[in-house]
Amino acid sequence: MKNSLASSTLNNFYLTGYLFIAVFLVINTANQIMFKTVAMGPGGSDYLALIVEPLFYLCIVLFMGQAVAWLAVLRRLPLSYAYPFTSLTVITILASGAFFFGEPISLGNILGALIIMIGVAVIAGGNQHVRVESLDSL
Amino acid sequence: MFFYLILFLAVILAAAGQVMLKFGAGVGGLDLGIIRLNVWVILGLGAMVMSMLLSVRGLSVVPMRDMAFILPTVYVLVPVFSRIFLKERLNGRTVFGTVIMIAGIFIFNMPTMQLF
Which member of B86, B100, B109 has the closest CB to residue A119? Predict the structure, then answer.
């Protein structure tokens, strides 16, 4: 009973880790869109124009939010397990680039994105609950 | 060659920064709710910012096709550093998934036929 409660608590702890990975991916993608928007304006070539650009400060806020979300992930999941999930930003940024800026998508992009998702799925389906299961077996 | 070295330094700094952040996330410090702030976290964030600045410098000279082979190395270094410095256990599934994912990043960045 005690072990089952501990197991459930640990499962919730890890699940929150996955939630923060999702938050990280959303903020990171939003930040990249903002950076691109700023870079396409006068702030892209002139530092003075960059300083007076309000969106630039939104980028800094998003960057801090992204860092907080990632630190929350690292408090809950092993680095070697969590880090590969960051590669999913390649896909979200590809989609955002096409949607918001009409950027081209190549066959290699699609194929690469699918393979990245398979790799992340292999990792995600793996080891994280080993420690939880080992508690049950005590 | 100098700019390639800068990029490799950027990749190493990014991986080292992740290790510092992970180490900092697990030790005490100023509790800010969902995260804790301490010297390791500050050093880790500093390493990440430094890595970003070096990447921008390197990118100004190194062609994108070469970046496709340099940037994914961070996904190799992070598990290796985690094993060495954080003593994390790597299982076969994580290693296999990482290899597939890196192959995906290579293919993603290869110049191919444009679809849309």
Answer: B100
Listed residue (A128, A132, A129, A131) closest to A5, CA to CA: A132
Is the C-alpha dihedral spanning B17, B72, B86, A22 positive or negative?
A: positive
Smallest Cβ distance to A72: which of B35, B94, B114? B35
Q: Which residues of A20-35 are buried (b: 16+ CB within 10 A; e: fewer)?
A: bbebbbebbbbbbbbb
Tokens 């939630």 appear where? A19
Structure ipTM over 0.85, yes or no: no
Give CA–CA dist A45/A65, Å, rounded: 26
Q: What is the pLDDT of residues A96-120, one digit of tens each?
A: 888 888 888 888 889 999 999 999 8
- Give B113→chain A minimum CA distance, Å: 6
Q: B27 and B38 in contact (C-beta within 8 Å)?
A: yes
Of the CA atoms within 13 Å of residue B70, those in its CB half-sphere come to 20
With beta carbons under 8 A apart, name residues in chain A contacting B112. 106-109
- Sign (positive/negative) of CA torsion A113, A116, A118, A121? negative
* Cβ contacts from A onto B, under 8 A: 143
pTM reported for the whole predicted model = 0.80
What are the residues facing B114 on neighbouring strands? A106
